Amino acid sequence: MAHYDFNMPVAEAQVRQLKVNDTVTLNGTLFGIRDATQIHMFDRGRKTRFDMNGHAVIHTAPNAKWVGETKSAPSGYEPICIGTTTSARMERFTRPLMSEYGVRIIIGKGGLSEGSAAAFSDIGGVYLAIVGGAAALETTWIEQIEEVDLDDLNPESLWKFRVKGFGPLLVSMDAHGGSLYTEVNQAARGRRAAALASLGVKT
Amino acid sequence: MVGSGRRSIEHEDEQVKVDLKQIEEACKELYIRALKVLPPDIKQGFARLDKTETDATGRAILGTMIKNIMVAEATDNLLCQDTGIPIYNVTIGAGVELDGYQLKQAIIKGCERATREYPLRSSVVHPVTRKNEHTSCGRSVPVIHIDFVPDADTLTIEMIPKGSGSENNSFLKMAVPADGIDAIKTFVVDCVLDAGGKTCPPTIVGVGVGGTADLCVHLSKVAATRPLGSKCDDPEGAKLEIDLSKAVNQLGVGPQGLGGDSTSFAVHIETAATHITMNPVAVNMQCHSARRARATFTPQGLTYGF
Ligand code: SF4
Known about the structure:
The complex is a heterodimer. Chain A has helices at 12-16, 35-42, 94-101, 114-124, 135-139, 180-190, 192-198; strands spanning 3-7, 23-33, 56-59, 63-66, 77-81, 105-108, 126-129, 142-149, 158-173. Chain A is of the alpha/beta class. Chain A has a single domain (3-198), classed as fumarase (Alpha-Beta Barrel), CATH 3.20.130. Chain B folds into two domains: 2-36 and 79-162 and 291-305; 165-286, no CATH class. Chain B has helices at 20-36, 40-52, 56-74, 100-117, 164-167, 180-195, 213-224, 235-248, and strands at residues 2-3, 9-12, 15-18, 85-93, 96-97, 143-149, 155-162, 170-175, 203-210, 264-272, 279-286, 293-298, 301-305. In chain B, a hairpin with a 2-residue loop joins β2 (9-12) and β3 (15-18). Chains A and B meet through β4, α5, α6 and α7 of A and α3, α6 and α8 of B. The complex binds iron/sulfur cluster.
């Protein structure tokens, strides 16, 4: 269990060295992405002007306030409350995010499945767990909303955040096929029979 | 509870009249309050789990959640980014006189104003076009439930922002009588396993038992949003609550589904009579951000609480 501080973007070797149960803190650029963003990018042929090569994306749709473009709010948006959402809904977008845009890190809650695990080992990527429902705290790690693209999808726009000390986040899926979710899920299913027996259920 | 001073309900003959403008204001205020401060029973629930959790990852995650509750209060910010689907539960006392249609309009207006004026992220879209009106409102949303109670002078409005992570894990099974109570118990355990980390555990697992299909699902939501420490008032339901709470916490799903003892704060049950040929069971979960806020209108004024 090691801890890493990453200044974004990162190289393939940096994510390949990560193992399940390591922790990572991010600094610099982080992109915010959600269901509608990816439906439009991968099903409806839209493109973003952002360079996401070697970067991290967080599954999110923030509470942001339009204040007009200023020096401290160059995108026109000030962050109010920014956290994460359930990643599983966006499972099928992991591979194209990595192969078409060069994304290396996906951040979210609840984990992803086999398809994403395979993409992580084929291309070199990881999933970092952030605590869902802890957005008040996580907002304090965000310095600024630097830019926004595909903003007709607001709040599911493509957000470019500048972050400082974003973490520690837990490596819960790595590039070597490791997944804490699979481990925990298999262990929990292994306890199903005992739980049902304790309820007097005949199986 | 904090009083707001101004009288909100006027006595006129035997009837009690409510000021609709103040209801609108309260419905705005309730949405914002609910998103910022967790009820004391939920905070106590966290303190209890924090003492008993034995898994290192589980302990760290609970610690982050507890810290988040403090940061939200200290920075006057929302607990979670998900502003949820807004639900307003209204109870009307026997002596309260109001125009039901106007009441619904006031609730919708308050919900819309909270979203625009704070501003909150509107999490509500049309189900087919996916268009977001940026008001947290749409067809039949906010969800409004109205019930009647015997306390003559009182009107209460409970506001619940229901997060999608937990709501997406809602399940109904129309079991048959031959499946018996075992079907109910097995279904609850399997729903907790299937939901895994997606519901942001530790959860409150709400279970509806009996009724029609729609009533059964409704009861599961009532159960999931009941205060921790409350008991099902049907003794058969209360017994099931104790047994199922123990059983689901043996599974080891843990906080955020990353392993640990704290899978659920509790399992809550609500029951209703059902048909001789039916045995329905529904599960609806509430996440650890188990948010709710309440406004109580009496002739003495308006108070806010949980
Ligand atoms: S499930 Fe609850 S705590 Fe988790 S992100 Fe959704 S609303 Fe927030």
